[in-house]
Amino acid sequence: MKLPHDIQKDFPSLHAMGMRAYLDSAASSLTPVSVLEAMNDYYQNFRSNVHRGMYKTAGEATERYEAVRGIVAKFLNASAPEEIVFTKGTTEALNLLATSLGRTFGPGDEVVLTEMEHHANLVPWQEAAKRHGFVLKYIPITKAYRLDMDAARALITPKTKAVSIAHASNALGTVNPAKELAALAHAIGALFILDAAQSVPHMKVDVRDLDCDFLAFSGHKTYGPTGVGVLYGKKALLEKMEPAQYGGDMIREVKYEASTWNDAPMKFEAGTPNIAGVIGLGAAISYLETIGMDAVEAHDRDLTAYALEKLPAVPGVKIIGPEAGERIGAISFEVAGAHPHDLATIFDREGVAVRGGHHCAMPLMGKLGVTGTCRASFGIYNGKEDVDALVEAIQAARATLKL
Ligand SMILES: Cc1ncc(COP(=O)(O)O)c(C=O)c1O
Fold first, then answer.
1. What is the CATH number of the domain that holds 297?
2. Is 50 in the same domain as 150?
3. What is the pLDDT of residue 2?
4. 201 C-alpha to center of ligand 1: Å?
5. What confidence tens digit (pLDDT) does each residue in 24-41 have?
6. Are residues 17 and 105 in the same domain?
7. CA dist list (Å): 280 to 67, 91, 224, 250
8. N or C: which terminal CB in the chain sees fewer CB atoms within 10 Å?
9. Average pLDDT, the chain
10. Catalytic residues
11. How far is CA 134 from CA 94, 130, 131, 142, in A?
12. SS3 260
């Protein structure tokens, strides 16, 4: 399906896990051999801490770690490697923003989110709002599972200090009009933040084209290792921001009385970072670039279109998400009369792995009037045969549950 080679052979866990179809890449993608090799190389050949040691392997570890900033910066089309902060994932990156920026907002200020946010882009803002007295507003979704842009225009006002939205919804698959929202935010001087956990693995994301001020994504959803992620921030903004965590590596000078901070991005990386994880993330991005993000996106689009044709043809199946078009291959659905947890358990017996539940978007589930959904999500290793396996698993579940 428009991919340059047999991708599946690059992913040993596809076979080792013994499943018929792995359809849970929105939760966590699998990892190609080149990523495992890069991390293994670090542990076997230059296993040292970064930024500190005077010996050869410490220098090599630092060089390899810092080189990944350049790889990520190029991948996102950032202006400079200094705009890349390593975190442990999207959640930590968004917490960093809510903590650090939140301190500069106060009573009378507003932060605009959407009704389809993952808890990671909601709870940190709720906590910061409670602490500093600002107010959260939510852009509603329409019946077509897209953002109500008229409502967005009314909600983004001179009181708005930041607009922070999911680029692509993990629960609905919707891709939101980021450029348009960035323009609305910037027109009134607000910051624009993108939770790109679900978009970066599926499409070319260009921070300068989108004009986002900050962007977060996770390594483990992008064919990289767990425990590593990225916060992109415009250099001038990162320089102005206060750190959110304190300790080794983020300092310039420490006295008993007070301390000063290193420059960005180091200012935001307190303590020993996930060195192997960062090196693995670099390998994952290089792997994606070899395939080409255009091919990745085309593959996702084709597979999504196929699934959106096949799944609703099964009696009782309803897609909870937008039609083909501006969406990713994270497809939520319900089967009339069946609980998503029961479905996911029966699918597992059929060798099909999906996610069943609230997808860390409990307010959205409430708004949709459901406790949860089943979600099938695609990675570059999935093919039409995996969608066919899901269709058969749904039929098996309907037979078991006598629907
Ligand atoms: C849209 C979105 N934002 C944030 C997150 C949190 O990512 P992580 O758990 O890697 O920090 C996820 C994970 O599912 C997500 O889908």
1. 3.90.1150.10
2. yes
3. 60
4. 12
5. 999 999 999 999 999 999
6. no
7. 12, 19, 6, 23
8. C
9. 97
10. 360
11. 17, 7, 8, 26
12. strand
Q: Which of 244, 245, 216, 232 is nearest to 89 (CA)?
A: 216
248 pLDDT above the threshold of 90:
no
The DSSP code sequence of 270-307 is -SS--HHHHHHHHHHHHHHHHH-HHHHHHHHHHHHHHH
Residue range 274-331, pLDDT digits in tens: 999 999 999 999 999 999 999 999 999 999 999 999 999 999 999 999 999 999 999 9
Torsion of CA 111, 123, 232, 151, to 10 degrees: -40
Residue 84 tokens read as 């890349």
> Which three-class secondary structure state does DSSP give residue 100?
helix
Structural domain count, the chain: 2
Kindly provide the b/e burial profile for residues 80-91, where b requires at least 16 CB atoms within 10 angstroms of the residue's own CB: ebbbbbbbbbbb
pTM for the whole structure? 0.97
CA distance 333 to 376: 8
Could you tell me the two tokens for 22?
């792995």
Centroid of ligand 1 to alpha carbon of 79 (angstroms) = 25
Q: Give the atom of ligand 1 at the shortest distance from the alpha carbon of 170.
A: 16
Say if residue 212 is in the same domain as residue 324. Answer: no
* Residues 174 and 321 grouped into a single domain: no
Q: Are 264 and 244 within 8 A, CB to CB?
A: no
Question: Could you give the CA distance from residue 375 to residue 278 in angstroms, rounded to a whole number?
Answer: 29
**Are the CB atoms for 140 and 148 separated by under 8 Å?**
yes
Beta bridge partners, 164, equal 193
With a 6 Å cutoff on the Cβ, whether 120 touches ligand 1 is yes
Candidates 402, 378, 343; CA nearest to 21 is: 378
Q: What would you report as the CA-atom Rg of the chain, rounded to the nearest whole angstrom?
A: 22
